[in-house]
Amino acid sequence: MPRKKRVAKVKVDDLSDAQFFDLCLGGRNTFENDFLRRAAYWKHKDELMELVNAGARPAAFWDYEGHERLVLREEPTGFKDRKGKPYVHKVLEDQEDALRRLGLLTAEEEAQLKAWKQITGN
Predict the structure, then answer these.
(1) Quick check: is 80 in a domain?
(2) What pLDDT, in 10s, does the model give residues 12-67?
(3) Position 5 in a domain
(4) Which domain holds residue 53?
(5) Residue at 11 is within a domain
């Protein structure tokens, strides 16, 4: 008798605060695995996108939508691993610059950014 394939049950209806911040800011392991984190991102993507400023995206966007920010330079942290190899911090391009380079800024975002720059003088 053939075995039934098990389908993972994804429960992402109720994100904890930690999981929500994980998707927005990254850097935490608040999901059981990456599959559940990815599923939560796609399910809540619109909600997450509404919360970020123009010219920015949630951390999970960069993880799951196949876009990369350019590494501008690497800076030593002053720490080394067990083998003596120095740890480096990668300085990435601004999200706004990356989105513009990738053609992903919307006209509405461009207008908001222009208005913000006029207000702040930047």
Answers:
(1) yes
(2) 457 998 999 999 999 778 999 999 999 999 999 999 998 899 999 999 999 999 88
(3) no
(4) 17-120
(5) no
